[in-house]
Amino acid sequence: MDSLIFSTSEKKYPLISASIAVATATALLALIMPLQTVAQPVPRYMNAVKQEIARLGYKADCRDSEGICTLMLVGLNEIPPLTAPVSIIVDDSSATIRFMLPDLLPDTLPTGEIAQQLLRMNHQLVVAKLSIDDRSNKIVLSAVVNTDSNFDRKTFRSTLKGFIQVARDVITKFSTSEDPNQN
Question: Which residue segments constitute the domains of the chain, with CATH numbers given?
Answer without folding.
Answer: 3-32 (no CATH), 46-175 (3.30.1460.10)
